[in-house]
Amino acid sequence: MLEQRVRPLVVGAVLAYLGALLVVPLMSLLSVVLGAPERALEGLTSAEAMDALTRTLVVTAVVVVANVAMGIAAALLVVRDPMRGRGVLDALLDLPLAVSPVMTGLSLLLLFGRGGWLSAPLETLGVVVPFQMPAVLLATLFVTLPFTAREVILVLRELGTSQEEAAATLGANAWQTFWQITLPNLSSAVALGATLTAARALGEFGAVLVVGGAIRGRTQTATTFIHTAMEERNEEAAYAMSLVLAGLAILLLAALTRLGRSRRTP
């Protein structure tokens, strides 16, 4: 009897909480854009906005490929490799979740900026990192590092090694076992990790602003475009770009949900 009374209250509280934090802000953003569609479309289709959005999509694609590959490798080292120091590696994977993105940008500036530890050798090679595209890539790579690795680590620990050991007894070498046994079993975890990585890369702001500088035509991304547009009182363009980024994130999650359902369907 008590459970029947409490359950509607819990459901209502959860729905109200999620609605206030997620649905209401998105609906307000949509209403503002639909209130002035011509100005929003004009701001969104400007050369500056298209350049920033294209740069964000390119950075996101590169980051997803790099961090999916490194995430799988790191997960295999943490779970399968008997090397010493696995605990340290496991802890380091969580570092980007604990460090502020602004601190990440500042640390990259200290490392690659003028007078930094790596500035002199890079200058001799003619390589400039701060306020260039490499800085935006490095910052985004750092903040998105844990997502694929963490998902794959969880699945690897649940799977155990029985299937891999059986493949080895049948004569499969390490690469054959990885490509035919391990990786297919990790497909759902990799898809989830890639989706979370892409969504985080699309929305990264603090680190890329500090180390990239939001320079028009060079390092400006979609999120820093929103920041600049708000400062310049171009609210319609900022709201339109925000809605585009939110829509892309929703599409990513919807695709992942559909993929999960298709895998469960016999």
Which terms would index this structure?
266 residues; mainly alpha; MetI-like fold; 15 helices; 80% helix; 0% strand
Number of individual domains? 1
Proportion of strand residues: under 5%
Tell me the number of helical segments per DSSP (H or I, 4 or more residues long): 15
Extended strand count: 0
What is the CATH superfamily?
MetI-like
pLDDT < 50 stretches: none
Measured distance between first and last alpha carbons? 38 Å
SSE pattern, N- to C-terminal: HHHHHHHHHHHHHHH
Describe the sheet with the most strands. Answer: none
Rg for CA atoms: 22 Å
Multimer state:
single chain
Overall mean pLDDT score? 86
Helix/strand structural class = mainly alpha
Which bin fits the share of residues in helices? Answer: over 70%
Query: What is the annotated CATH architecture?
Result: Orthogonal Bundle
By CATH, the topology is MetI-like fold
Top CATH class: Mainly Alpha
Q: Tell the overall outline.
A: globular
